[in-house]
Amino acid sequence: AQTVTQSQPEMSVQEAETVTLSCTYDTSESDYYLFWYKQPPSRQMILVIRQEAYKQQNATENRFSVNFQKAAKSFSLKISDSQLGDAAMYFCAYRIMNRDDKIIFGKGTRLHILP
Amino acid sequence: KAGVTQTPRYLIKTRGQQVTLSCSPISGHRSVSWYQQTPGQGLQFLFEYFSETQRNKGNFPGRFSGRQFSNSRSEMNVSTLELGDSALYLCASSLPRDSLNTEAFFGQGTRLTVV
Q1: CB-count exposure of residue A83 (10 Å: 0-12, 13-18, 19+)
Q2: Tens digits of per-residue pLDDT, A62-81?
Q3: Largest Cα–Cα distance of chain A, in whole Å?
């Protein structure tokens, strides 16, 4: 079965500190994309960062970076210098490459930023 | 460039009624996918349309249906509403799967409440 597991339903971090959100997934495919999406109270799903499974180098987008361990099927998100605007629900997800546009999502981690 | 537009934003319906939700994708995007988001189940894939054809369908009963028009706008319909259909319905649009750009852009969703 294709699944994504986010083991931390909620997390809190002090403003300006660093936090890591965990994600593991299960797929028998070898070519896929991994994503972290952010959903603030406005409900708009926003792509935070993307990783192609064939790339060994971990993706980075400003304060956001990932630790991609393909053999372990692990894809964690690190947020550095946390800001109040980072407070949101974060979803880990993947999509099989060149198959369809279906995205498989985890159940999310709610991140609180403490001032 | 306008984003993905979903209408209406909020909807309240009675059990047994039917409802139609609309999604206008980003200009140039021909793939439209629909997701149901609930606190218990998270985000679940409903179906995907490309060039007016349903390419993929999730594990939902036949009461859930959709279509896509020649201008890529999509509608989803839920008949004989049940209380459990209360959810946030999200629409996402993207370029064709063979595109180098794999990102799916989401609308702000339609919050459906069934009473």
Answers
A1: exposed
A2: 999 999 999 999 999 999 99
A3: 44
The distance from CA A7 to its chain's CA centroid, rounded to whole angstroms, is 12
Residue A65: both structure tokens together: 């970076």
Positions in chain B short of pLDDT 50? none
Using DSSP, state whether B109 is helix, strand or coil.
coil
End-to-end CA separation in angstroms for chain B? 37
Per CB-CB distance under 8 Å, the chain A contacts of B108 are 42-44
Select from A46, A101, A105 the Cβ nearest to the Cβ of B31. A101
User: pLDDT of A14-36, one tens digit each?
Assistant: 999 999 999 999 998 888 999 99
**Which chain A residue lies closest to B94 (C-alpha atoms)?**
A101
B-chain residue closest to A33, CA distance? B102
Which residues lie closer than 8 Å to B39 by C-beta, 6 or more apart? Answer: none
Q: Which two tokens stand for residue A61?
A: 């987008």
Does the pLDDT value for residue A1 go beyond 70?
A: no
